[in-house]
Design goal:
Elements (H helix, E strand, L loop, with lengths): L1 H28 L8 E20 L8 E18 L2 E10 L4 E13 L2 E8 L21 E9 L4 E8 L2 H5 L5 E11 L3 E12 L12 E12 L4 E12 L3 E13 L4 E9 L5 E9 L6 E10 L5 E9 L5 E11 L6 E12 L1
Antiparallel strand pairs: 1-2, 1-18, 2-3, 3-4, 4-5, 5-6, 6-7, 7-8, 8-9, 9-10, 10-11, 11-12, 12-13, 13-14, 14-15, 15-16, 16-17, 17-18
Length: 350
């Protein structure tokens, strides 16, 4: 009990100073006292409990089947607000078992001259497809420290930014990713396109010889169109140039169809930065009036015939308690092993 109390106190001590700093910084940037310019703020805390049962069948005629049981509890804190012309947000994720808190997201944004800026730590990904963006140079589903400046126009938008991996991951010996990019795009009535040029610098494990590809320059583009009949098309491609005249490419071709019932069917074919060609099929309940949210997802790797099948179901009819169920089936390269994972999840919002 004493250990739990100390862990909670440590989490609070780590979170509150950052919230206060963001609040004061937004007030300073606005050039007026904080007390007179607060427009709005929002605070949310979620307690997420997960219980997983995993059944693994390794390759081999005499391989032993294993069943693994896991349990995890996370605390997710989200705080955001508006002070004058500036908006700030803070997201913290705490591990209840390890009494550790990590800043998942911390940003501040606002107007600067003719443009809009955003700085801090977040996922900077932009995307053409439902599951993958060929023109995004950094790793997906990862938050980076960085910044971006956007110059909106009547017909064209210009954005440029840069990001670097978290210092904790550098200390832990993971590969260092530093990316910079320039994006030019146009948003029209039914379609939009973007041209992206980026530079990616990779250190650590790549320099030690994992694949020999360290720095690269990327040039890519994307196009999407909404046909206003429920069908939307998205296409993207990227060319990566490495030292020594080594070239690789990534692409995505996909479509999304929204049925009159609100259900959404997505199909995509893409090649990621690891050189794997994959196909994705996703069927989602997009009915906003329904109390149930479900998704059926299948991803097949053309390179080695690996496959991931996912079925998820969540009840969202209650504002405070959201129970969920997820079933994952993994098939390894050329079907050499199978892995089933069943996860029960309960999210309590305060």
């Amino acid at each position: 009990m004493k250990k739990t109390t100390e862990g909670i106190k440590g989490l609070v001590k780590k979170v509150l100073p950052v919230i206060g700093t963001l609040f004061i910084l937004a007030g300073i940037l606005n050039g007026s006292p904080v007390t007179g310019k607060v427009k709005a703020y929002h605070f949310n805390m979620d307690l997420v409990n997960e219980y997983s049962f995993r059944h693994v069948t390794p390759p081999g005629p005499v391989a032993r089947k294993d069943t693994i049981t896991e349990a995890a509890t996370e605390i997710q804190l989200d705080f955001s607000g508006l002070v004058g012309n500036y908006q700030y947000s803070l997201g913290v994720k705490g591990d209840w078992q390890k009494f550790r808190a990590d800043f998942e997201e911390i940003t501040i944004s606002g107007f600067a001259g003719p443009g809009v800026f955003e700085a801090g730590k977040r996922d900077w990904r932009w995307g053409e497809g439902f599951s993958y963006s060929p023109t995004y140079p950094l790793k997906a589903d990862r938050n980076y420290w960085g910044g971006e400046f956007n110059l909106p126009g009547l017909r064209y938008n210009l954005s440029f930014g840069s990001a670097v991996v978290d210092g904790n991951e550098i200390a832990n010996g993971k590969d260092i990713n530093t990316g910079s990019w320039i994006r030019v795009g146009s948003l029209m009535n039914q379609s939009d396109y973007k041209v992206v040029m980026s530079y990616l610098k990779k250190d650590n494990e790549t320099r030690e010889g994992s694949n020999g590809q360290v720095d690269n320059i990327n040039l890519g583009g994307s196009y999407s169109r909404d046909f206003l009949n429920g069908f939307a098309l998205q296409v993207g491609a990227n060319l990566s140039c490495y030292p020594g005249d080594t070239v690789s490419y990534q692409y995505l071709v996909g479509g999304k169809y929204t049925l009159p019932s609100g259900h959404i069917l997505v199909g995509e074919v893409y090649r990621d930065r690891s050189g794997h060609d994959q196909i994705l099929i996703n069927f989602i309940n997009g009915d906003l009036m329904s109390d149930w949210q479900w998704q059926i997802r299948d991803v097949v790797n053309w390179s080695d015939y690996g496959e991931i099948r996912t079925l998820s179901l969540d009840y969202i009819g209650d504002d405070n308690i959201t129970p969920g169920l997820e079933i994952n089936n993994y098939q390894g390269s050329y079907g050499v092993y199978h892995d089933w994972k069943l996860t029960f999840r309960v999210k309590i919002s305060i």
